Prior knowledge:
By secondary structure, chain A is α+β, with helices and mostly antiparallel strands. Chain A has 12 helices and 14 strands.
Amino acid sequence: MKASVGGYARASSLDHALQLLASAEGAGRVLAGGQSLVAAMNMRLSTGDLLVDISRLSELSGVSDEGDTLRIGALKRHADVGRDALVCAHAPLLAEAVHYIAHAAIRNRGTIGGACAHADPAAEFPACVLALGATMHVAGPHGSRAIPAEDFFEDVFATAIEEGEILTAITVPKAGSGEAQVIEEVARRSGDYALAGLCLVKRDAGHRVSLFSVGPKPILATGAMAALDAGDLDGAVAALAGELDPPSDTQASAAYRRHLAGVLLRRAVARTEGGKA
Amino acid sequence: MTEMFRDKVDVALTVNGEPVEARVPAGQHLIDFLRQTVGLTGAHASCEHGVCGACTVRVNGEAVRGCLMLAAQADGAEVWTVEGLSDSAAIADLQEAFVARNAAQCGFCTPGMLVAAEELLSQGGLPSRAEIREHLSGNYCRCTGYEAIVDAVEDVARARGGEDVARARGGKGAA
Protein backbone atom coordinates (compact mmCIF):
# COMPACT_ATOMS: atom_id res chain seq x y z
CA MET A 1 0.00 0.00 0.00
CA LYS A 2 0.92 3.66 -0.05
CA ALA A 3 1.92 5.57 3.02
CA SER A 4 -0.52 8.06 4.49
CA VAL A 5 1.52 10.93 5.88
CA GLY A 6 0.30 14.03 7.66
CA GLY A 7 3.26 16.18 6.73
CA TYR A 8 7.00 16.34 6.29
CA ALA A 9 9.73 18.64 7.57
CA ARG A 10 13.46 18.30 7.13
CA ALA A 11 15.43 19.20 10.22
CA SER A 12 18.52 21.35 9.71
CA SER A 13 19.95 20.79 13.20
CA LEU A 14 19.20 18.77 16.30
CA ASP A 15 17.63 21.84 17.94
CA HIS A 16 15.47 22.36 14.88
CA ALA A 17 14.40 18.71 14.99
CA LEU A 18 13.41 19.06 18.64
CA GLN A 19 11.42 22.22 17.84
CA LEU A 20 9.64 20.42 15.02
CA LEU A 21 8.77 17.50 17.29
CA ALA A 22 7.46 19.87 19.93
CA SER A 23 5.34 21.70 17.38
CA ALA A 24 3.80 18.44 16.15
CA GLU A 25 1.86 18.16 19.40
CA GLY A 26 2.09 14.43 19.72
CA ALA A 27 1.72 13.55 16.02
CA GLY A 28 5.45 13.87 15.33
CA ARG A 29 7.45 10.90 14.17
CA VAL A 30 11.21 10.88 13.74
CA LEU A 31 12.31 9.69 10.30
CA ALA A 32 15.92 8.59 9.85
CA GLY A 33 16.78 5.82 7.40
CA GLY A 34 13.11 4.89 7.17
CA GLN A 35 13.71 1.19 6.63
CA SER A 36 11.25 0.20 9.34
CA LEU A 37 9.15 3.35 9.59
CA VAL A 38 8.36 3.70 5.89
CA ALA A 39 7.49 0.00 5.71
CA ALA A 40 5.16 0.46 8.68
CA MET A 41 3.59 3.51 7.07
CA ASN A 42 3.16 1.61 3.80
CA MET A 43 1.28 -1.09 5.68
CA ARG A 44 -0.82 1.66 7.31
CA LEU A 45 0.30 0.53 10.73
CA SER A 46 0.95 4.20 11.27
CA THR A 47 -1.00 6.97 9.51
CA GLY A 48 -1.12 10.74 9.61
CA ASP A 49 2.35 11.14 11.08
CA LEU A 50 4.09 14.49 10.95
CA LEU A 51 7.52 13.33 9.83
CA VAL A 52 10.62 14.99 11.23
CA ASP A 53 13.39 13.95 8.84
CA ILE A 54 16.65 13.91 10.80
CA SER A 55 18.60 11.96 8.17
CA ARG A 56 20.68 15.00 7.12
CA LEU A 57 22.00 15.77 10.60
CA SER A 58 25.69 15.00 10.14
CA GLU A 59 26.25 15.76 13.85
CA LEU A 60 24.50 12.45 14.61
CA SER A 61 26.33 10.18 12.21
CA GLY A 62 29.90 9.78 13.39
CA VAL A 63 31.79 7.31 15.56
CA SER A 64 34.29 8.63 18.08
CA ASP A 65 36.74 7.11 20.52
CA GLU A 66 36.11 8.51 23.99
CA GLY A 67 38.77 6.59 25.86
CA ASP A 68 37.02 3.72 27.60
CA THR A 69 33.92 3.98 25.45
CA LEU A 70 32.98 4.27 21.81
CA ARG A 71 30.33 6.82 20.89
CA ILE A 72 28.24 5.82 17.88
CA GLY A 73 25.98 8.44 16.35
CA ALA A 74 22.35 7.38 16.01
CA LEU A 75 22.42 8.00 12.26
CA LYS A 76 25.31 5.62 11.62
CA ARG A 77 23.94 3.37 8.91
CA HIS A 78 24.10 -0.40 9.26
CA ALA A 79 26.52 -0.82 6.34
CA ASP A 80 28.78 1.86 7.81
CA VAL A 81 28.68 0.25 11.26
CA GLY A 82 29.86 -2.98 9.66
CA ARG A 83 32.89 -1.42 7.98
CA ASP A 84 33.83 1.17 10.61
CA ALA A 85 37.38 0.57 11.85
CA LEU A 86 36.64 1.76 15.40
CA VAL A 87 33.53 -0.44 15.67
CA CYS A 88 35.35 -3.47 14.26
CA ALA A 89 38.21 -2.96 16.74
CA HIS A 90 36.27 -2.07 19.89
CA ALA A 91 32.71 -3.39 19.48
CA PRO A 92 33.03 -6.33 17.08
CA LEU A 93 29.60 -7.63 18.13
CA LEU A 94 27.95 -4.74 16.29
CA ALA A 95 30.01 -5.29 13.16
CA GLU A 96 29.18 -9.00 13.12
CA ALA A 97 25.50 -8.32 13.71
CA VAL A 98 25.28 -6.21 10.56
CA HIS A 99 25.49 -9.30 8.37
CA TYR A 100 22.27 -10.63 9.90
CA ILE A 101 20.28 -7.43 9.37
CA ALA A 102 17.90 -7.62 6.41
CA HIS A 103 19.56 -7.18 3.01
CA ALA A 104 22.33 -5.08 1.51
CA ALA A 105 20.01 -2.41 0.09
CA ILE A 106 18.32 -1.98 3.46
CA ARG A 107 21.63 -1.89 5.31
CA ASN A 108 22.61 1.02 3.05
CA ARG A 109 19.93 3.24 4.58
CA GLY A 110 18.85 1.81 7.93
CA THR A 111 20.50 3.35 11.00
CA ILE A 112 21.58 1.91 14.34
CA GLY A 113 19.66 4.59 16.20
CA GLY A 114 16.57 3.93 14.16
CA ALA A 115 16.78 0.21 14.87
CA CYS A 116 17.09 0.83 18.61
CA ALA A 117 14.37 3.49 18.74
CA HIS A 118 12.03 1.30 16.70
CA ALA A 119 12.69 -1.58 19.13
CA ASP A 120 11.47 -4.44 17.00
CA PRO A 121 11.74 -7.50 19.24
CA ALA A 122 13.35 -9.44 16.38
CA ALA A 123 16.01 -6.81 15.66
CA GLU A 124 19.69 -7.52 16.22
CA PHE A 125 21.07 -4.15 17.37
CA PRO A 126 18.82 -3.75 20.44
CA ALA A 127 20.01 -7.13 21.74
CA CYS A 128 23.61 -6.19 20.93
CA VAL A 129 23.55 -2.94 22.88
CA LEU A 130 21.92 -4.78 25.77
CA ALA A 131 24.64 -7.43 25.78
CA LEU A 132 27.34 -4.77 25.57
CA GLY A 133 25.87 -2.81 28.49
CA ALA A 134 25.57 0.27 26.30
CA THR A 135 24.21 3.66 27.28
CA MET A 136 21.55 5.30 25.14
CA HIS A 137 21.69 9.08 24.82
CA VAL A 138 18.55 11.03 24.10
CA ALA A 139 18.00 14.74 23.61
CA GLY A 140 14.76 16.47 24.43
CA PRO A 141 13.23 19.87 25.01
CA HIS A 142 14.58 19.88 28.56
CA GLY A 143 18.10 18.75 27.72
CA SER A 144 19.85 15.45 27.32
CA ARG A 145 19.78 12.31 29.38
CA ALA A 146 21.52 8.97 29.37
CA ILE A 147 19.59 5.72 29.75
CA PRO A 148 21.22 2.33 30.41
CA ALA A 149 20.32 -0.14 27.65
CA GLU A 150 18.84 -2.37 30.37
CA ASP A 151 16.21 0.30 31.10
CA PHE A 152 15.74 1.46 27.51
CA PHE A 153 13.73 -1.35 25.92
CA GLU A 154 10.28 -1.63 27.47
CA ASP A 155 7.99 -3.62 25.18
CA VAL A 156 7.19 -4.35 21.53
CA PHE A 157 8.16 -1.15 19.67
CA ALA A 158 8.28 0.68 23.02
CA THR A 159 11.30 2.33 24.62
CA ALA A 160 12.14 4.81 27.36
CA ILE A 161 12.29 7.61 24.77
CA GLU A 162 9.63 10.10 25.80
CA GLU A 163 7.43 12.28 23.64
CA GLY A 164 9.52 15.03 22.08
CA GLU A 165 12.83 13.23 22.57
CA ILE A 166 15.28 11.93 19.96
CA LEU A 167 17.86 9.19 20.35
CA THR A 168 21.15 10.85 19.41
CA ALA A 169 23.94 8.41 20.21
CA ILE A 170 24.88 5.11 21.79
CA THR A 171 28.00 4.66 23.87
CA VAL A 172 29.43 1.20 24.33
CA PRO A 173 32.32 0.14 26.56
CA LYS A 174 35.34 -0.74 24.44
CA ALA A 175 36.18 -4.42 24.42
CA GLY A 176 38.98 -5.32 26.80
CA SER A 177 41.93 -7.46 25.74
CA GLY A 178 40.78 -11.06 25.59
CA GLU A 179 37.12 -10.08 25.52
CA ALA A 180 34.98 -12.19 23.19
CA GLN A 181 31.79 -10.97 21.53
CA VAL A 182 29.66 -13.18 19.28
CA ILE A 183 26.19 -13.19 17.83
CA GLU A 184 24.30 -16.26 16.63
CA GLU A 185 20.85 -16.47 15.10
CA VAL A 186 18.61 -18.84 13.22
CA ALA A 187 16.40 -17.55 10.39
CA ARG A 188 14.73 -19.51 7.64
CA ARG A 189 16.38 -17.44 4.90
CA SER A 190 19.16 -14.88 4.85
CA GLY A 191 17.76 -11.55 5.93
CA ASP A 192 14.55 -12.90 7.40
CA TYR A 193 13.53 -12.06 10.93
CA ALA A 194 15.32 -14.33 13.34
CA LEU A 195 13.36 -17.22 14.80
CA ALA A 196 15.71 -16.78 17.74
CA GLY A 197 18.98 -14.95 18.23
CA LEU A 198 21.59 -14.61 20.93
CA CYS A 199 24.48 -12.29 21.79
CA LEU A 200 27.29 -13.41 24.12
CA VAL A 201 29.91 -11.09 25.59
CA LYS A 202 32.64 -12.72 27.67
CA ARG A 203 34.54 -10.19 29.79
CA ASP A 204 36.88 -10.28 32.76
CA ALA A 205 33.91 -9.05 34.78
CA GLY A 206 31.75 -11.96 33.65
CA HIS A 207 29.46 -13.13 30.89
CA ARG A 208 26.59 -11.18 29.38
CA VAL A 209 23.92 -12.97 27.36
CA SER A 210 21.05 -11.30 25.55
CA LEU A 211 18.41 -12.79 23.28
CA PHE A 212 16.12 -11.44 20.61
CA SER A 213 13.00 -12.68 18.86
CA VAL A 214 12.05 -14.71 21.93
CA GLY A 215 9.87 -12.15 23.70
CA PRO A 216 8.40 -8.66 23.45
CA LYS A 217 11.81 -7.03 23.85
CA PRO A 218 15.47 -8.07 23.97
CA ILE A 219 16.10 -10.10 27.10
CA LEU A 220 19.14 -10.16 29.35
CA ALA A 221 19.48 -13.78 30.49
CA THR A 222 20.83 -13.21 33.98
CA GLY A 223 20.35 -16.81 35.07
CA ALA A 224 22.36 -18.14 32.15
CA MET A 225 24.99 -15.46 32.76
CA ALA A 226 25.48 -16.53 36.37
CA ALA A 227 25.79 -20.19 35.37
CA LEU A 228 28.35 -19.33 32.69
CA ASP A 229 30.31 -17.32 35.24
CA ALA A 230 30.38 -20.49 37.35
CA GLY A 231 31.65 -22.48 34.37
CA ASP A 232 28.44 -24.50 34.07
CA LEU A 233 27.31 -24.54 30.42
CA ASP A 234 24.63 -27.21 30.95
CA GLY A 235 23.33 -25.20 33.86
CA ALA A 236 23.29 -22.08 31.70
CA VAL A 237 21.24 -23.82 29.01
CA ALA A 238 18.80 -25.05 31.64
CA ALA A 239 18.58 -21.60 33.23
CA LEU A 240 17.96 -20.06 29.82
CA ALA A 241 15.01 -22.35 29.16
CA GLY A 242 13.51 -21.26 32.47
CA GLU A 243 13.93 -17.53 31.98
CA LEU A 244 12.46 -17.31 28.48
CA ASP A 245 8.77 -17.19 27.61
CA PRO A 246 8.89 -17.02 23.82
CA PRO A 247 5.82 -16.56 21.63
CA SER A 248 4.38 -19.16 19.26
CA ASP A 249 3.55 -17.97 15.78
CA THR A 250 3.39 -19.20 12.22
CA GLN A 251 7.19 -19.23 12.05
CA ALA A 252 8.05 -21.21 15.14
CA SER A 253 6.48 -22.62 18.29
CA ALA A 254 7.47 -21.40 21.73
CA ALA A 255 9.04 -24.78 22.47
CA TYR A 256 11.13 -24.63 19.31
CA ARG A 257 12.31 -21.10 20.08
CA ARG A 258 13.28 -22.16 23.60
CA HIS A 259 15.18 -25.12 22.15
CA LEU A 260 16.95 -22.86 19.65
CA ALA A 261 18.02 -20.49 22.41
CA GLY A 262 19.92 -23.33 24.09
CA VAL A 263 21.48 -24.42 20.81
CA LEU A 264 22.58 -20.86 20.09
CA LEU A 265 24.08 -20.49 23.56
CA ARG A 266 26.16 -23.64 23.08
CA ARG A 267 27.30 -22.43 19.64
CA ALA A 268 28.22 -19.02 21.00
CA VAL A 269 30.16 -20.42 23.95
CA ALA A 270 32.01 -22.81 21.63
CA ARG A 271 33.03 -19.87 19.45
CA THR A 272 34.31 -17.88 22.41
CA GLU A 273 36.42 -20.88 23.30
CA GLY A 274 37.82 -20.99 19.78
CA GLY A 275 35.91 -24.04 18.64
CA LYS A 276 32.80 -24.82 16.65
CA ALA A 277 29.60 -26.33 17.97
CA MET B 1 2.52 25.32 14.68
CA THR B 2 2.00 22.38 12.35
CA GLU B 3 2.40 24.67 9.34
CA MET B 4 6.10 23.86 9.70
CA PHE B 5 5.15 20.52 8.17
CA ARG B 6 4.39 20.35 4.47
CA ASP B 7 2.10 18.00 2.64
CA LYS B 8 3.96 18.85 -0.57
CA VAL B 9 7.74 19.07 -0.69
CA ASP B 10 9.92 20.69 -3.35
CA VAL B 11 12.80 18.50 -4.46
CA ALA B 12 15.66 18.95 -6.90
CA LEU B 13 17.71 15.92 -7.79
CA THR B 14 19.37 14.26 -10.74
CA VAL B 15 17.88 11.18 -12.30
CA ASN B 16 20.06 9.29 -14.74
CA GLY B 17 22.26 12.35 -15.04
CA GLU B 18 19.42 14.75 -15.84
CA PRO B 19 18.28 17.44 -13.39
CA VAL B 20 14.72 16.99 -12.15
CA GLU B 21 12.70 19.45 -10.08
CA ALA B 22 9.29 18.62 -8.74
CA ARG B 23 6.80 19.18 -5.94
CA VAL B 24 6.06 15.80 -4.42
CA PRO B 25 3.43 14.61 -1.92
CA ALA B 26 5.03 14.21 1.51
CA GLY B 27 4.33 10.49 1.69
CA GLN B 28 5.20 9.57 -1.88
CA HIS B 29 7.77 6.80 -2.30
CA LEU B 30 10.79 7.42 -4.46
CA ILE B 31 9.72 4.50 -6.67
CA ASP B 32 6.28 6.01 -7.35
CA PHE B 33 7.89 9.37 -8.08
CA LEU B 34 10.27 7.76 -10.57
CA ARG B 35 7.55 5.70 -12.23
CA GLN B 36 4.61 8.08 -12.20
CA THR B 37 6.15 11.54 -12.31
CA VAL B 38 9.44 11.03 -14.12
CA GLY B 39 8.03 8.24 -16.29
CA LEU B 40 10.78 5.73 -15.64
CA THR B 41 8.94 2.45 -15.27
CA GLY B 42 11.95 0.14 -15.34
CA ALA B 43 12.15 -0.38 -11.60
CA HIS B 44 8.94 -1.89 -10.29
CA ALA B 45 6.70 -1.19 -7.33
CA SER B 46 5.69 -4.54 -5.91
CA CYS B 47 5.56 -5.59 -2.27
CA GLU B 48 5.91 -2.01 -0.98
CA HIS B 49 7.43 -3.05 2.30
CA GLY B 50 11.04 -3.66 1.42
CA VAL B 51 10.95 -7.41 1.01
CA CYS B 52 10.98 -8.20 -2.71
CA GLY B 53 13.68 -5.90 -4.12
CA ALA B 54 11.85 -5.18 -7.41
CA CYS B 55 12.06 -1.42 -6.72
CA THR B 56 15.83 -1.37 -6.15
CA VAL B 57 17.47 1.74 -7.62
CA ARG B 58 20.82 3.43 -7.09
CA VAL B 59 20.87 6.51 -4.86
CA ASN B 60 24.13 8.34 -4.25
CA GLY B 61 26.07 5.33 -5.49
CA GLU B 62 24.28 2.70 -3.39
CA ALA B 63 21.47 0.27 -4.05
CA VAL B 64 18.38 1.22 -2.05
CA ARG B 65 14.73 0.25 -1.86
CA GLY B 66 12.63 2.71 -3.84
CA CYS B 67 9.61 1.81 -1.70
CA LEU B 68 11.35 2.51 1.63
CA MET B 69 12.65 5.94 0.73
CA LEU B 70 10.41 8.95 0.35
CA ALA B 71 10.79 11.12 -2.73
CA ALA B 72 11.06 14.04 -0.30
CA GLN B 73 14.22 12.45 1.10
CA ALA B 74 15.81 12.33 -2.35
CA ASP B 75 16.26 16.10 -2.54
CA GLY B 76 19.82 16.69 -3.77
CA ALA B 77 20.39 13.02 -4.50
CA GLU B 78 21.91 11.40 -7.55
CA VAL B 79 19.53 8.66 -8.66
CA TRP B 80 20.15 6.05 -11.32
CA THR B 81 17.58 3.60 -12.59
CA VAL B 82 17.95 0.68 -14.93
CA GLU B 83 17.10 2.98 -17.86
CA GLY B 84 20.07 5.23 -17.20
CA LEU B 85 22.40 2.36 -16.46
CA SER B 86 21.30 0.80 -19.76
CA ASP B 87 21.62 3.96 -21.84
CA SER B 88 25.07 4.71 -20.47
CA ALA B 89 26.13 1.10 -21.15
CA ALA B 90 27.39 0.93 -17.55
CA ILE B 91 25.87 -2.53 -17.12
CA ALA B 92 25.90 -3.72 -20.74
CA ASP B 93 28.11 -6.69 -19.88
CA LEU B 94 25.82 -7.67 -17.01
CA GLN B 95 22.75 -7.43 -19.19
CA GLU B 96 24.42 -9.54 -21.89
CA ALA B 97 25.34 -12.11 -19.27
CA PHE B 98 21.71 -12.23 -18.07
CA VAL B 99 20.66 -12.97 -21.65
CA ALA B 100 23.43 -15.50 -22.26
CA ARG B 101 22.69 -17.35 -19.02
CA ASN B 102 18.90 -17.13 -19.42
CA ALA B 103 18.75 -15.30 -16.10
CA ALA B 104 15.46 -13.55 -16.88
CA GLN B 105 12.11 -15.09 -17.68
CA CYS B 106 9.19 -12.75 -17.05
CA GLY B 107 11.71 -9.97 -16.29
CA PHE B 108 9.79 -8.36 -13.43
CA CYS B 109 12.63 -8.72 -10.93
CA THR B 110 15.40 -8.05 -13.44
CA PRO B 111 15.82 -4.26 -13.07
CA GLY B 112 16.22 -4.66 -9.32
CA MET B 113 18.48 -7.66 -9.75
CA LEU B 114 20.72 -5.70 -12.11
CA VAL B 115 21.09 -2.74 -9.74
CA ALA B 116 21.76 -4.99 -6.76
CA ALA B 117 24.22 -7.16 -8.68
CA GLU B 118 26.02 -4.14 -10.10
CA GLU B 119 26.58 -2.84 -6.55
CA LEU B 120 28.32 -6.09 -5.64
CA LEU B 121 30.33 -6.16 -8.86
CA SER B 122 31.42 -2.56 -8.41
CA GLN B 123 33.15 -3.57 -5.19
CA GLY B 124 35.65 -5.49 -7.32
CA GLY B 125 37.26 -8.85 -6.75
CA LEU B 126 35.71 -12.20 -7.45
CA PRO B 127 32.78 -12.81 -5.10
CA SER B 128 32.04 -16.43 -4.26
CA ARG B 129 28.69 -17.90 -5.28
CA ALA B 130 27.69 -17.71 -1.63
CA GLU B 131 28.57 -14.01 -1.54
CA ILE B 132 26.59 -13.39 -4.73
CA ARG B 133 23.59 -15.21 -3.25
CA GLU B 134 23.86 -13.26 -0.03
CA HIS B 135 24.04 -9.94 -1.85
CA LEU B 136 20.98 -10.83 -3.94
CA SER B 137 19.10 -12.36 -1.01
CA GLY B 138 16.83 -9.32 -0.85
CA ASN B 139 15.73 -9.65 -4.47
CA TYR B 140 13.04 -12.17 -5.21
CA CYS B 141 12.68 -13.98 -8.52
CA ARG B 142 9.59 -16.12 -8.96
CA CYS B 143 10.42 -17.58 -12.40
CA THR B 144 13.91 -18.80 -13.11
CA GLY B 145 15.09 -19.48 -9.62
CA TYR B 146 18.48 -18.14 -8.79
CA GLU B 147 21.07 -20.43 -10.33
CA ALA B 148 21.09 -18.69 -13.70
CA ILE B 149 21.21 -15.27 -12.07
CA VAL B 150 24.16 -16.26 -9.89
CA ASP B 151 25.82 -17.75 -13.00
CA ALA B 152 25.43 -14.47 -14.87
CA VAL B 153 26.82 -12.35 -12.04
CA GLU B 154 29.71 -14.75 -11.58
CA ASP B 155 30.52 -14.59 -15.31
CA VAL B 156 30.70 -10.81 -15.19
CA ALA B 157 32.84 -10.79 -12.05
CA ARG B 158 35.30 -13.07 -13.82
CA ALA B 159 35.22 -11.12 -17.05
CA ARG B 160 35.82 -7.82 -15.28
CA GLY B 161 39.16 -9.01 -13.97
CA GLY B 162 38.18 -11.12 -11.03
CA GLU B 163 40.23 -13.96 -12.52
CA ASP B 164 43.36 -11.90 -11.98
CA VAL B 165 42.33 -11.20 -8.41
CA ALA B 166 41.77 -14.91 -7.79
CA ARG B 167 45.22 -15.76 -9.12
CA ALA B 168 46.81 -13.02 -7.02
CA ARG B 169 45.17 -14.59 -3.96
CA GLY B 170 46.77 -17.92 -4.80
CA GLY B 171 43.64 -19.29 -6.39
CA LYS B 172 41.57 -19.16 -3.22
CA GLY B 173 38.81 -17.30 -4.98
CA ALA B 174 38.51 -19.79 -7.81
CA ALA B 175 35.75 -22.33 -7.48
